[in-house]
Design brief:
- The structure is a single chain.
- The chain is globular, with a radius of gyration of 12 Å.
- It contains 3 helices and 3 strands, in the order βαβαβα.
- β1, α1 and β2 form a beta-alpha-beta unit.
- α2 packs parallel to α3.
- The relative contact order is 0.25.
- The chain has a 3-stranded parallel beta sheet.
- The longest helix is centred in the first third of the chain and has 13 residues.
- It is about 45% helix and about 20% strand.
- By secondary structure, it is α/β, with parallel strands linked by helices.
């Protein structure tokens, strides 16, 4: 099984470094998207699924905690 992962972080270099690290790992995962904020992820989740979402807690517009609550609602 391959787990679908999304990464949300407003800091570009931190986000890209995390994506690169995940993609180089030998874990059964695929990074299906990286996003600058929670709103972008919510939009993506309306048409797609994710098994794991890695998010920053402090992001502009919507905090990671607010985003987690909305993401759960969208995925149900």
């Amino acid at each position: 099984m391959n787990f679908k992962i999304l990464v949300a972080d407003d800091e570009y270099y931190a986000r890209k470094a995390l994506v690169m690290m995940l993609e180089k790992s030998e874990l059964p995962i695929s990074v299906n998207g990286d996003f600058e904020d929670g709103e972008e992820v919510i939009e993506f989740l309306q048409e797609n699924e994710a098994d794991i979402i890695i998010t920053d807690i402090r992001m502009p517009g919507m905090t990671g905690l607010e985003f987690a609550k909305k993401a759960k609602e969208v995925q149900e």
